Amino acid sequence: MNDDRSRRSAGESPRPKADLGAADLRAIVSRDLRRVRPLWPPSRRALALTPLAIAIVVGVPLVNFFRTDLATLGVVKAWGLSMVESAAGLAIVALGLREAIPGRALRRRALLIAALAGLALPLVIYRVTTDAFTVGPRTWAQWRFGMVCFRTSVLAATPVLLVSAFLTKRAFPLHRVATGILWGLGCGLIADAGLRLYCEFTTLPHMLLEHFAAVVASMLLGVIMTSAIAPPSRPKE
Amino acid sequence: MARDTKISPGGGTESAELELCRHMEAYLEGRIEAFDALYQALAARVRRFQLSLCRDASLADDLTQETFLQMHRSRRTYEPGRPVTPWVFAIARHVYLMHRRATARRLRFEATVAADVRSDETMHDAARALGDADEVRHALRDVPADQRQALLMHHVHGWSFSEIATRLGIRVNAAKTRAFRGMRRLRGHLR
Fold it and tell me: CB-based contact (8 Å) between A37 and chain B?
């Protein structure tokens, strides 16, 4: 490395990588060698997000208000399913962090199953907890009416997205899209778990255009953020 | 799901993998001898792997060295107790794919330049083209070395500014400034 600097200051090109022999490589490594602490396993790093996930699930209805039919739903359908959804979100974030470790990537089929299951979960929970699909905007054209849900969900996901991005940056994401899809989706589910304790609209257009779209938006944010933070490619001369 | 096995003592291959794990853990502690042992154990295999992908012996050598450099930079992502080989080969594959992507980008750039040259009628005159090339070469000599380097890396080799910054150990803005100033000076000389 210092050789390169002296060459540059002398007006020469840096040493092309093609000339990098085993001895040069050893010299570079020994100059930079120091004790490093390995990263925690992905599951443990995702578990570190638990307090934040709980804060989001409880915080969204606390900051706004609890849905009026919370008592009718019962503890299991209200709090229980939100806990299930946020736990699933944390599990998917863990898979995303795992994807950012070289040699531990999921196979394509497992990746697809995880993503599809994650996307299906809010829809399944919606179906299980809804008896009458009549509260809220009834037509697709009324999408602006419930924009507050979309905004709340994306805003609620932001802290956990930022922390997950930091955790991903510390790893080495080789498959940026897959990594981003997984942890972005996980963050979206955590936020949705809080949102469903606050929003009592039950119509399908509202559910798909606001709640589900917010989960998808978090997923896309995960992809964009991973692409932005991943180490740059290092082409050869 | 991906193979996700922790190493358990036993068989020949497993004992070799255990040995690699021990070296890797010592490498994380900061011991250069551990790096030497890892290089000794893995370099030939990584080179064979790169050769099977790129089918070019000298390129395989370069990619092998680059693999070990990337391995060094990302060594903290190795989880102690897990097999070293899949970790190293995932990095090796990444290095090959990055090289392929960069080559494709460079080829696209060269194709664009070739198309520009073809469309330029003055370039049909071969003698004049040679003269122009000579002129450019002379003008390039008058551009300061650091600016010339950034200029050539960006405009000729097709590197992005962030790649140039990483390679030269400077900020992205500094890379942009150098390339811009180099181009301005080159234009000035050619006028």
Answer: yes
Whether residue A157 is predicted with pLDDT greater than 80 in this model: the reply is yes
- Nearest CB among B2, B73, B144 relative to A105 is that of B2
Rounded to 5 degrees, φ, ψ at A93 are: -60, -40
The full set of domain ranges for chain A reads: 2-32, 42-229
Q: Do A39 and B105 touch (CB under 8 A)?
A: no
**B22, two tokens:** 């021990």
Q: Which residue of A has its CA nearest to B101?
A: A235
Which chain A residues are within 8 Å of B162, Cβ to Cβ? 232
Which residue matches tokens 């792997």?
Answer: B49
Give the position of tokens 């022999």: A21
Percentage, residues of chain B above pLDDT 90? 31
- Chain A residues in contact with B76 by the CB 8 A cut-off are 36-39, 170
Number of domains in chain B: 2
B137: Cβ–Cβ under 8 A, 6 or more apart, which residues? none
pLDDT digits (tens, 9 = 90+) for A114-126: 999 999 999 999 9
Same structural domain, B93 and B135: no
